Amino acid sequence: MRIGTLLCVRRFSYVQSFATATLGLIILFLSFTPSANALPAFARKYGLRCSACHETWPILNNFGLKFRDNGYQLMNDHDAPIWQNPSYWPVTFRITPIWHRLSSLNSVDTYTNVSTTLPEGTLAVQRITSSGFDLSGLDFHTGGTLEKNISFYVLPSSDPTATFHFETVMARFDNLFGSSWLNIKVGRFELNNLLSEKRMVQLTGNGGIYQTYHFIPVGDGNIFGQMGSNQLGMEYLGHSYNDRTRISAALLTSSDGNENLITGANTYNGFFTFDQGLDLGKLGVDRLGAYAFVGEAATYYRTSSGTPIPGSGITNKGFSREGFTGQFYFGAHFDVNFVTQHGSDNAWFGQGYGNPINPGSAENGIPSCPTSCLANATPGTTLPLGSQAPTWNGYTLEARYVYSPQLIFIGEFEAERMSRQANGPGYVPGFTGPNGITGAAPSNLGNINNYDGLIRYNPFMTSRAGMALQAEYNVFHQVGTGPMGANTNTNELLLGLDFDF
Amino acid sequence: MNAQLMRWLRLLAVLGFFAVPTLVLAQLTQSQQEEWLHTPAVASHIGNLTGNANSGTVKYDYRRYCVGCHGELGDGNGEVAQWLDPPMWPKPRDFELAIFKCRSTPTGTLPTDEDLYDTIGRGLDRSAMPIWNTFTNQERADLVAWIKHFSPRWQTEKAGTPIQIPPEPEITPDRVKAGQDVFARVQCWKCHGVAGQANGPSASTLTDDQSRPIAPFNFTDGSRPKCGSTDQDIYRIFMTGLDGTPMPSFADNIKPEEAWDLVFFLRTLQPHNQYNKREKEIAKQLNLKPLNALKLSQ
Fold first, then answer.
1. How far apart are the C-alpha atoms of A361 and A219, rounded to whole Å?
2. Do B132 and B80 share a domain, yes or no?
């Protein structure tokens, strides 16, 4: 689920048809009643409670992280499928029916407005609040071992309209030559982020992703530095036997996980991580780590009727993201997780060059326009005077109070701060750059504050099925990306059910 | 009163007859265990670590990680137990009995705190019992104390004295051959098979002390012994036995020097691993053949 669906959700009308929700619920309950065979895949295979691997499902604890790092194996010489009851079916379903109330600013045609206090003109900014039942998609998780030390994970995921895509598809080869330091993974997978976005429990539109993992300066054309997106490539992972020390390096195609080489001809990036767990006695095993995400992507495409020709990209430019990660347990009930980021994009990206997939998409802060408005660094193109490489700093802080494996409170705060804008002070006043920004950008353009708080309660917890009730509130604020140059300012209240079985 | 109602009442009475004593017994056990929790006997001592069953977090850790198999009362009746089918998947240990497989102490005695501490971190191979090495040392020591609060045995008995293991001698071809003779004499092969393939004449009939089927260890398929893989561990396994299983202690039948010979011989049965390079070479030199089962049973 996550990114794909959540972005889609945002593009959708927020009040989804009641019928879909009801139908979903009916199907759900039907599938629940007669058979007790539908069980979360791994817990069922090993007879472990969810809580053994998950702080709360699906967030991993240290034991779960080790299980994952071993290629979804307990390493008890019974990991191969031959040891399983033949009726064992390694599939888990997850579905999340929700009710939410969303309040956001919109640019509204004044003649459609009910309020008379709005100023004259064709468009005006107005806050619109709506509520309704919704679904945030359906996932089939299937994963496990094909043979000892060979495992797979396939996650076909659907958005609320039942359009499926493969969120994760990978094969893993673990403990090569009998060493826990040699594990290889190929396919499309989540980067080795200590704070995993695919495992976060937040469900709201803005809280359901880590902003730090997807931050892009306003108008910037580099969509490839999003470490929260599942990426295509190959990963090496090494870890000590007890998983205290972990190291990884991934070689990825700069496509932000999109298939068919939609992007440049030979553009790659690398993602490197290291983290170390420390034995802090009664506090627990606490981790500290660092990561670097460096790569390049094309800024010039030959086009056909204005559409970039896949694989034709050249004139690669660089980008980088680096930072620290930490996971601190303060005893059994409280933990704090953080990720910091320093990001930097080449000045060409800053001017809007580079994005061949969704040119001019409103998502990146560029106003929507036909594909022909792709910012393309065709031969002879020069950067506008005063262009500079955008840089920024950000962090994500997530604190969790685990009252019991069945009841968890999570508070999250994220801050993204531009430190250098693409349109520098030398930018010609009044000139609108290819990135859609006119003149020198204000220093805080694009800055984000994101607050999220939630309570998640599992009324029961077994190795067979899980269900969580969740109440969540999110406030999202971004400077200058709202309608008509206003700030984006949304808040969302969500009540949801998260089933897995 | 109509017949329907009578039937229901009878059913209720029968259910009550079984349910009430069970509940009462569970209550009794629980309140006793509550008392034991606060006794010094359950504290664990591992090196300079002291494990505490009242540490606050340990109860929570047990709930989070262990209870699904070992149960609230430590009786091995967690909700998962019913899905584990011996001999392929042994049932979780009943901590109320305090009978443990992996001990450095003589058969029939309680294990040391270190034994339990090591076992938790090592896991039990070929069972659902995972390798719990992701805890901090303190958390693991606390879990040892917690396990000890389930059984009255820890209140009245002291842990056994670990057996003495003489220093490991230099391996020689003669010692390997002598080891094979011990293997034949004390009849390890009856269960483990002449080539260590877990197919001896008694293998298929073995049961543990709960009358559940159990399979002997297969030396040849690359699996790890539950109670440790080093030479010292192997020595300890057959000189203390795995209590609660048909795998006996041979302390009375095998002299310490002979015991090392046997360890060397057992190594030749295993596929190549990090411990048996010399043994495999010697076996090849000697052209060591499995015992002749027919001759042995005459």
1. 9
2. yes
Fold of A33-500: Porin (2.40.160)
State the nearest Cα–Cα gap between A66 and chain B, in angstroms. Answer: 8
Could you tell me which residues come within 8 angstroms of residue A254 by beta carbon, excluding any fewer than 6 positions away?
A: A224, A263, A264, A267, A268, A269, A295, A296, A297, A298
pLDDT tens track for B78-105: 988 888 889 988 999 999 999 999 999 9
CA B197 – CA A1 distance, rounded (Å): 48
Q: Does B133 touch chain A (CB under 8 A)?
A: yes
pLDDT digit string (tens) for B105-133? 999 999 999 999 999 999 999 999 999 99
Whether chain B has a CB inside 8 Å of the CB on A415: the answer is no
Residue with tokens 């919704």: A134
Domain boundaries, chain A: 1-32, 33-500
CA distance B210 to chain A (A): 21
- Reference B225, options B237, B243, B214, B213; nearest CA is B237
Best to test chain A binding among B69, B80, B118, B125 (most A CBs inside 10 Å): B80
Domain span including residue B278: 173-297
Domain check: are B130 and B196 in the same one? no
For A230-265, write each residue's pLDDT tens digit. Answer: 888 999 999 999 999 999 999 998 888 877 666 676
Q: Which residue of B has its CA nearest to A283?
A: B136
Per-residue tokens: A336: 């704090």
| Mean pLDDT of the residues in chain A | 80
Residues B220, B292: one domain?
yes
In this predicted structure, what is the pLDDT of residue B142? 97
Q: Which of residues 49-68 of B touch A (CB under 8 A)?
A: 55-57, 60-61, 63-65, 67-68
Among the ranges given (A163-177, A467-481, B41-55, B196-210), the one the predictor scored with the smallest mean pLDDT: A163-177
- Same domain for B51 and B147? yes
